[in-house]
Amino acid sequence: MELGWSVLVDNKIRFGSHPSRPLGACGDPVTNRRFRKAYLAGEYVLLFFGLASIYAVLFRGTSPIPFLLVLGLAVVVYLLRSSGFDRASLWRPGTLWSQARSIAALWCLAAVCLSATVAFLRPGLLFAFPREDPLIWALVMVLYPLLSVYPQELIFRGFVFHRYATVFGEGARMVAASAVAFGFVHIAFGSWISVAMTIVGGWIFASRYRRTRSLFTVSVEHALYGMLVFTVGLGQYFYHGAAGA
């Protein structure tokens, strides 16, 4: 009000433009940043926990693929229209080669651990999918990366890292936020096993994306783990028919 009154008494001063005075409360950049940060934090919770819970209740038992494809397309449009987004991160395949050894080593360790766990706890499931239904297994190996993996990476890495950088920064907190959101949405499959495993996987993928800024590289890694899970006998926890398993 004081600044507004000065406009009336001194035509040389414009409202909100005097260099020696702070902006009014509504235009305070610090206040605006805090408001935006709070807004984005609420949006993050609503999208990845609120709406995910609603989906789990209303659409449990239905395939998430159509939703993933629509959301993935919407995310691409949003990212391409967003200022400051590095469009090269949508692909950037060159980083795969520098990460290949690390990806392979971690994947081999996971393969041994998961195979041993299934063999010990549920031996009848080990390699049951490729053994009993090899054609469907082969089809899943081909279509899963295209229809499921890349859309997920668009959402949980590309979108989350860009949209919520104000809230979580670009370090470990962002990696954790991406991993937890990625894991929680798997509640739709009705199993704590799928949620727990995907939180771990989400941490791996988010850490990789943080280092490479390559959705191509992280999608390759994600696909390798997904194919491993389906192959060793844990796929029942990661498809819509597993609800309630």
TrEMBL record:
Keyword annotations of the record: Hydrolase, Membrane, Protease, Transmembrane, Transmembrane helix
Domain of life, per lineage: Bacteria
InterPro entries in alphabetical order: Rce1/LyrA-like_dom (IPR003675)
GO terms, biological process: CAAX-box protein maturation; proteolysis
Domain CAAX prenyl protease 2/Lysostaphin resistance protein A-like, residue spans: 137-225
Transmembrane segments: 38-58, 64-81, 102-122, 134-152, 189-206, 218-239
A GO molecular-function descriptor: endopeptidase activity
Protein name from the UniProt record: CAAX protease self-immunity
Phylogenetic lineage: Bacteria, Bacillati, Actinomycetota, Actinomycetes, Mycobacteriales
